[in-house]
Amino acid sequence: MAAVGVIGSGTWGTALAILLSGNGHRVDLWSALPEEARQLRETRRHPNLEQVTLPEEIRVTDDLEAAMGGKDLLVMAVPSVYVRQTAAKMRPWILEGQIVTNVAKGIEETTLLPLSEVIGQELPGARIAVLSGPSHAEEVSRGLPTTCVAGASSRQTAEYVQSLFMNEIFRVYTSPDVLGIELGGALKNVIALAAGIADGLGCGDNTKAALITRGIAEITRLGVAMGGKAETFSGLTGMGDLIVTCASMHSRNRRAGILIGRGYTMEEAMREVKMVVEGVFSAKAALALSKKYSVSMPIVEQVNAVLFDGASPKEAVKELMLRDRRMENAGLEWEEQ
Known about the structure:
51% of the residues lie in helices and 12% in strands.
């Protein structure tokens, strides 16, 4: 049995706390909001996970020192926009060599850093790992079969994280490609916004398939240019996560996109979804990275145009469809010219 502190009591943090407790570990779940912590303690219910009850064994607290003290593993489960400030608050109580596993998905807009590097800057003595994949909190909390990937620079660290999370309904693979895992998890949210916008416009399955396929092509181009491995983007944390986020109504990014396609502004859509829409925060970073690495990302460009430049969703679709003619895979050769 391990002692685990889950830092962040959103749906994903809560779902993972339930999973880890079910695996026999001693779990503390931390909320930044005292009132939220009190409600979770008293009701044992999360308002966005209505079908599940928080086990009594899970201790809910708003005391960060108590949540971190004596823990074998810390799980960073706050929204991406709060990762740096939360990690900075954790610094006084972090232990040298303590494992911190990031499960948030995003890129820091101001620095263009993946979140593991943000955490590493704030907690330089920690060993950083990531856990990612096609894994909606609503399904994991209910015990539905799910697969994820634990990534770390050290095999020992990745396998330790794998051993703590894995059970008969939650299968965990390992990978050394931390950068690729994180880029896949962050960038798929931007493509999911595009998929939702297309749904809101009334486009069909053909459009969804095109966005998923061309979306993973964009993600892979940028990921490889930045040093990620192409194999990662065809796996669970690339194509797998992209498919589930573009297709499921559990996806807050897709739901926000649907509303935008129906005429809502970005702000109106985010208020309606009532949770952090990570793709909105990753979109600008993705566009900036595409320019920094000279990588073509037309879907990302059009999502930014709709979100921040006042472009209409219909016009964005038209711009994508009327781009210059080209080969699907430029690396293939013709037998005849």
